[in-house]
Design brief:
The complex is a heterodimer of chains A (399) and B (296).
Chain A (H helix, E strand, L loop, with lengths): L8 E12 L3 H9 L4 H8 L2 E12 L3 E5 L6 H8 L7 E6 L3 E2 L5 H11 E4 L11 H5 L1 H6 L3 H14 L15 H14 L4 E5 L7 H18 L2 E6 L2 H7 L2 E6 L2 E6 L1 H6 L4 H8 L3 H4 L2 H4 L6 E2 L4 H9 L5 E6 L2 E7 H9 L23 H10 L4 E4 L5 E5 L1 H9 L2
Parallel strand pairs in A: 3-8, 3-9, 6-7, 7-8, 11-12
Antiparallel strand pairs in A: 1-2, 1-4, 4-5, 9-10, 12-13, 14-15
Helix pairs in contact in A: 7-8, 15-16
Chain B lengths: L14 H46 L2 H16 L2 H16 L3 H31 L1 H16 L2 H12 L3 H12 L1 H12 L3 H9 L4 H30 L1 H5 L7 H10 L2 H33 L3
Helix pairs in contact in B: 1-4, 1-6, 2-3, 2-13, 3-13, 4-5, 4-7, 4-8, 4-10, 6-7, 7-10, 8-10, 9-10, 10-13, 12-13
Classes of the chains: A alpha/beta (399), B mainly alpha (296).
């Protein structure tokens, strides 16, 4: 997924507090005084849900909020469409509109047109068919039956449920039901998608299939997705940025690489320890600058240049830019054969280039199969860096 | 003998005071019923008209037309041939033993009181489901209505409205309305919170949530309540006949006072036939809605 650059945040959460209980407003000062969750519970019987949450979510990004159960993540996501009202704080959308000051009508409009939601246990209506469920958002808006059915049919086809329109949710598997949930969410054309542990109830295989599908859809739709999960692998896979929530407080917000490589606290560190880094990191974050450049055109010149270097390989450049990898032994063999010509394509090693955005896991076999660091080449053919066995080993072994 | 002491006998209110309380309560209520009786009767007049018209329709129409209509309804609602044939045979037997007209009268009052119970009960159940405070008031009221011996509330109803169809109807409704209220409340409260959240999240208004999510999903429960209500209304038929409701209850009452065993048995069996008809039909319908609604 691409990182949105230099856009104003679409949603800003400011100093959000949630205290559950009858007299929350009366007791909220205890939270400001810094009393802990347990102290407040013992003193007033009120449960602290969220404490001083500040977030900025950019347009078009996938923002993952992750935490263990009880961390307040499901509470937090329900604030964006006001299924829960906060005790204190504000949530600004489009720069200046505080959704907490919306009237009932305006709130309904926001829920109908701007935000849609996908639920952990799907939240489908058992008495309605798959088609009617997908079209639910539009039917609430009063869109004509023909129009909403047309749109729902299209979306069902996109999520891979063509032919299931007349079935009831109970006749579908969990994965299929959640696809209906996705179709329902996309059907209203809302630009903000709230996903509350949307894939947590699915088997691992189906879950990763759904993750792929979401990533794929997001590439073309470019929605702003707020995704809740307790699964760090899922967070790293989907998130442009990740916020880590613990006991109602934000611990760290950052890109997946940052969370993995620079955990802010011991808690986050313990969290990321067991992560499969090979699957979470891209080549870009691990690669080193490519130092050994060969620029001499003649074989003898190139060999001489290479002998001055500490390594027995080099990345060959001519006037057209990066050409490929040459090994010292190839040049030596050519010299021995009496070849005095220029370096040409036939001397280059026959390897597939790897791209900076490749997932580390996918390039490990190639890295292990070659004796020299692999060149990392972007889609314009420019050499961006090199990936050696030792840098891969470093990042994977260093917790 | 020793004097009566509070140790041996429960300390009692003075007899005169008790009489005074009774007198003043009875007097107040009598005054109230004299003052407002006619007005309240007028209020119930449309219901009475409907009840009379419906009874006339059932009694005066040719028996075969009524029978065809009944069997048609039974089949439409239950979709069961077996049940329809069974009911046909039973109804023919009822008619053959000379109880057709009484059965029709009973059928009419049961139908009208069930409809009244549904029309009143479902909205009350909805209110109850929306507010815990309403629930905390309605639940004990229903408990009292269900356990208070029917004769006790027959008295004020008769004082107010005299003897006849409307007091009978009111007595039946008071006795039978509880299940439909309770199960509407329960059904709505049991609707999956995530489904309801989904409706809210997509911008449904409270009314849209009620009509298109809560009521359809609680339909199996509501139907179970309606079924119970019908059964309770049928069991009230004999008692209601004491205040002038015509139908199968009256011959049963007569057979108790005169010890006509066979007459009591036959009329009792006719009530059973009606009960089976209502019960099986409404259960078959509830089962069908349940199949559609239940997930997982």
């Amino acid at each position: 997924m691409t990182q949105a650059t230099e856009v104003k945040p679409l949603i800003r959460v400011k100093n959000l507090y949630q205290l559950f209980g009858k007299d929350a407003k009366k007791h909220i000062h205890l939270v400001h005084e810094g009393k802990s969750k347990d102290e407040i519970l013992a003193q007033t019987g009120h449960t602290l849900g969220l404490k001083d949450i500040n977030l900025e979510i950019n347009k078009g990004e996938t923002f993952v909020i992750m935490g263990l159960s009880g961390s307040g993540k499901s509470t937090l996501i329900r604030h964006f469409n006001r299924l829960i009202d906060p005790t204190e704080g504000s949530i600004l959308i489009d720069d200046d509109q505080d959704i907490l000051t919306l009237s009932t009508k305006e709130l309904q409009h926001l829920r109908r047109k701007r935000m849609s939601m996908v639920f952990q246990r799907f939240g489908l209506m058992p008495h309605r068919t798959v088609l009617e469920n997908s079209a639910y958002g539009l039917s609430v808006q009063g869109v004509s039956k023909a129009e909403r059915n047309k749109k729902a049919t299209e979306w069902l086809e996109i999520v891979g449920l063509k032919g299931y329109e007349k079935q009831y949710p109970s006749q579908l598997s969990g994965g299929q039901q959640q696809r209906v949930g996705l179709a329902r969410a996309f059907c209203t054309d809302a630009d903000i998608l709230l996903m509350d542990e949307a894939f947590s109830a699915l088997d691992p295989l189906i879950r990763s299939e759904m993750q792929d599908q979401l990533v794929e859809l997001q590439e073309t739709l470019n929605k702003t997705i707020i995704f809740i999960t307790h699964d760090l692998d899922e967070a790293l896979r989907l998130g442009d940025r990740i916020a880590i929530l613990k006991d109602g407080e934000l611990i760290q917000v950052g890109t997946p690489e940052k969370i993995l490589l620079e955990p802010a606290t011991d808690y986050v560190e313990a969290f990321v320890k067991d992560v499969n880094r090979a699957r979470a990191l891209t080549v870009e974050t691990v690669m080193k600058p490519a130092k050994h450049r060969i620029t001499e055109e003649s074989i003898a010149g190139a060999l001489a240049q290479m002998r001055k270097m500490p390594e027995d390989y080099g990345y060959y450049f001519n006037d057209d830019g990066y050409q490929g990898v040459i090994l010292q032994e190839t040049l030596e063999a050519a010299t021995k054969d009496g070849n005095t010509g220029n370096v040409s394509d036939e001397f280059m090693e026959d390897i597939d280039n790897i791209s900076p955005s490749d997932i580390l896991e996918s390039v490990i076999p190639e890295t292990l199969n070659t004796d020299y660091p692999l060149p990392v080449v972007d889609d314009k053919g420019k050499l961006q860096g090199q990936l050696s066995q030792s840098s891969v080993a470093d990042v994977l072994s260093n917790p | 003998m020793a004097e009566k002491s509070w140790l041996t006998d429960f300390p009692q209110m003075d007899r005169d005071d008790l009489v005074a309380i009774r007198k003043s309560l009875d007097g107040t209520y009598r005054d109230f019923s004299r003052e407002y009786g006619e007005m309240i009767e007028g209020f119930f007049d449309p219901l009475l008209q409907f009840l009379v018209a419906f009874e006339k329709l059932l009694v005066n129409s040719p028996w075969w037309a009524v029978l065809i209509a009944i069997i048609g309804l039974v089949y439409l609602v239950s979709r069961s041939w077996k049940l329809s044939v069974g009911i046909t045979v039973a109804m023919c037997a009822v008619g053959y033993f000379g109880m057709w007209e009484d059965t029709m009268r009973t059928l009419s009052i049961i139908t009208v009181s069930t409809l009244t119970s549904i029309v009143l009960g479902i909205p009350i159940g909805i209110l109850m489901a929306r507010s815990n405070r309403v629930q905390s008031i309605v639940t004990p009221t229903l408990d009292i209505m269900q356990t208070m011996p029917a004769f006790v509330y027959l008295v004020p109803v008769v004082m107010l409205l005299g003897i006849g169809k409307i007091p009978g109807l009111i007595a039946v409704v008071i006795y039978a309305i509880a299940p439909v209220i309770r199960l509407t409340n329960l059904g709505i409260r049991m609707v999956d919170s995530e489904v309801l959240e989904a409706a809210t999240a997509y911008g449904a208004t409270p009314f849209q949530r009620l009509i298109r999510v809560q009521l359809p999903l609680s339909l199996p429960n509501i139907m179970a309540g309606v079924n119970q209500t019908i059964m309770m209304a049928l069991s009230m038929v004999v008692i209601a006949s004491m205040i002038g409701v015509k139908g199968l209850g009256q011959p049963v009452l007569k057979s108790i006072t005169n010890q006509y065993f066979t007459m009591g048995l036959l009329n009792g069996l006719a009530i059973v036939v009606l009960a089976i008809m209502f019960d099986r039909t409404s259960q078959a319908y509830a089962k069908r809605t349940n199949n559609r609604v239940s997930s997982h």
